[in-house]
TrEMBL record:
It comes from Clostridium acetobutylicum (strain ATCC 824 / DSM 792 / JCM 1419 / IAM 19013 / LMG 5710 / NBRC 13948 / NRRL B-527 / VKM B-1787 / 2291 / W). NCBIfam families: spore_YyaC. InterPro entries: Pept_HybD-like_dom_sf, YyaC. It comes from the Bacteria. SUPFAM superfamilies: HybD-like. This is Uncharacterized protein, YYAC B.subtilis homolog.
Length: 195
């Protein structure tokens, strides 16, 4: 059954609610599976840099303890997404992939973060035909969708993207800490990776 929950970046309790929800989703689904954070986007477009920013911040929080693909240094984007997915599938057996990307929405939804237990469709704002990716998806709505989405992404304020990236990365960081402190042998494979 599809689940979709929305968080607003201006909610004072967002870190608490976001991290609680994410840790419960990971704990209930990702039993004995490697968890891969697939952060999609490019640093060449402000609006599309959310994924690489989150990936960069995650590597700073957890050093080498998390599996992260897509950072500011090595972004995952339209040109290398399929190759990256091949690498993930070859390197990890039945990984649980959390895909993270920016998206456009309505005026009322800008600043929202959406978690869904479904894959995401990267590049849809640019009419790119790319495979859907992820077992769980996290999207940040960075700007308003319109007739010229490419221009909208290029002119998105860096502050808006950075604010969303901070919340998403910190929320993931807190959820990982929660999971590692609630040690359970059922999830041993995941927890040992965090130590």
């Amino acid at each position: 059954m599809e689940k979709r929950i929305v968080f607003n970046v201006d909610d004072s309790n967002i870190l608490y609610s976001f991290s609680n929800y994410l840790s419960s989703e990971i704990k209930s689904i990702a039993v004995n599976r490697d968890i891969v954070f697939l952060c999609i986007g490019t640093d060449r477009s402000t609006g599309d840099s959310l994924g690489p920013m989150v990936g960069y911040k995650l590597t700073k929080f957890h050093k080498n303890n998390l599996i992260v693909f897509g950072t500011l240094q090595e972004p995952v984007h339209a040109k290398n997404l399929c190759n990256t997915m091949d690498i993930i599938k070859t390197k990890y057996e039945n990984p649980f992939i959390i895909a993270i990307d920016a998206c456009l929405g309505s005026t009322k939804t800008v600043g929202n973060i959406v978690i869904q237990n479904t894959p995401l469709s990267p590049g849809s704002a640019m009419n790119k035909s790319l495979p859907t990716v992820g077992d769980l998806s996290i999207t940040g709505i960075v700007n308003v969708s319109g007739p010229f989405d490419f221009m909208v992404l290029q002119s998105t304020r860096l502050y808006s993207v950075l604010k969303l990236a901070d919340i998403i990365s910190r929320g993931i960081h807190i959820s990982i800490i929660k999971l590692s402190s609630e040690y359970d042998s059922t999830y041993n494979k995941f927890y040992t990776r965090l130590k």
